[in-house]
Design goal:
The protein has 4 helices and 10 strands; from the N terminus they run ααββαββββββββα. The protein is an alpha+beta fold.
């Protein structure tokens, strides 16, 4: 019994160590869902569940603009503020602390307009009418979120996240993302490592598809 318990404990330690060191073999499959490869437009939105950091209230808004600028500079997908984008990218800035107080206020994705390239990045210009719809349109329904500011506790959200969903689905955020990148400073301003890693993944997928169908 003692030997069995010791073996089980050792096995669990090895398993935890493997996760911690990343010693498991990486998935060598470089394919991506067809909806990513065939996409032309992308809508970038802030995670509806993300609160506003007390220390950096505009962190998620700045990150969204940085992501849109990086995507615009890449040129593979066109960033749009539209309920009909091919892809929905959901971003969220991490916090410096494992447990952090944040403020929940009006929905962060209500910004009717169009993406306008500028010398310093991109800006959002006004358009007639307001994009409406639920998650399926890539634009959250304002009625689903409280407009009265209140505090909430966010636990464990120390890494930045960049999740890519199928914009053609009715509720894309309720499905599994087709690609994800979660890392410390993944949405770092200007260089935006998440977009660079996404570009590498798309490039690798293009090459893998070309090799299968020369």
């Amino acid at each position: 019994m003692r030997r069995g318990s010791a073996a089980l404990s050792l096995g669990l330690l090895v398993l935890v160590g493997a996760f911690a060191t990343g010693s498991f073999a990486k998935n060598k499959d470089k394919s991506l869902p067809p909806y990513i490869i065939n996409a032309h437009t992308v809508s970038v939105m802030i995670d509806p569940d993300a609160g506003v950091s007390v220390d950096d209230p505009r962190a998620n808004e700045v990150a969204r603009k940085d992501v849109e600028t990086a995507l615009q500079n890449w040129g593979r997908f066109m960033p749009v503020v539209s309920p009909n984008a091919d892809l929905v990218v959901v971003i969220r800035k991490g916090h410096a602390k494992m447990v952090d107080d944040t403020v929940v206020g009006p929905p962060p994705n209500n910004r009717p307009g169009v993406i306008i390239p500028t010398n310093s990045g991109v800006s959002v210009g006004a358009q007639h009418g307001t994009p409406t719809g639920g998650m399926g349109s890539g634009v959250p329904d304002a009625s689903s979120q409280s407009s009265t500011p209140h505090t909430q506790m966010e636990v464990g959200a120390v890494d930045d996240s960049f999740l890519v969903y199928d914009g053609s689905m009715k509720d894309p955020l309720n499905s599994s993302p087709g690609w994800r990148y979660i890392a410390r400073d993944g949405l770092h301003s200007h260089n935006v490592p998440a977009v660079e890693e996404f570009r590498k993944a798309v490039t690798a997928a293009d090459k893998a598809a070309a090799a299968k169908n020369p």
